[in-house]
Amino acid sequence: MLFSGQVLQIVGGMEWIWIILFVVVLLFGAKKIPEIAKALGRAKGEFEKGKQEIEREIREAEREIKETTQPVSKKEETEREKLIKAASALGISTYGKTDEQLREEIQAVLSKK
Q1: Structural domains in the chain (count)
Q2: I need a surface site. Which of 34, 45, 77, 95 has the fewest CB within 10 A?
Q3: Residues 55 and 77 grouped into a single domain
Q4: Distances in Å between the alpha carbon of 109 and those of 25, 57, 105, 113?
Q5: What's the domain range around 17?
Q6: pLDDT tens digit string along 78-109?
Q7: Residues 56 and 90 in one domain
Q8: What is d(CA 35, CA 46) in angstroms, rounded to the nearest whole number?
């Protein structure tokens, strides 16, 4: 008498495919198989769409991290230089002040004039 472990060893790879196919036909019937295949195809498509969406979000997050950790860009340096020139022309000290503080002081001086 063969034990279940020995039976599993006798059945090879291709035979498993036929056994599974036979069981599927018995369980669902031949008419339901195309519907099941269609549903599986849709599920796979949704999975792939979700996977691509997650990958896109990860790339965007990485890009945002790189942008925030990079040094000040030339555009921001140019803006800073403009603020310093304007503040100096108006007689405002720029030492140790942020851009926002400089803007506020420039506005205050200009509103007085």
Answers
A1: 3
A2: 95
A3: no
A4: 85, 45, 6, 7
A5: 1-29
A6: 788 888 888 888 888 888 888 899 989 999 98
A7: no
A8: 17
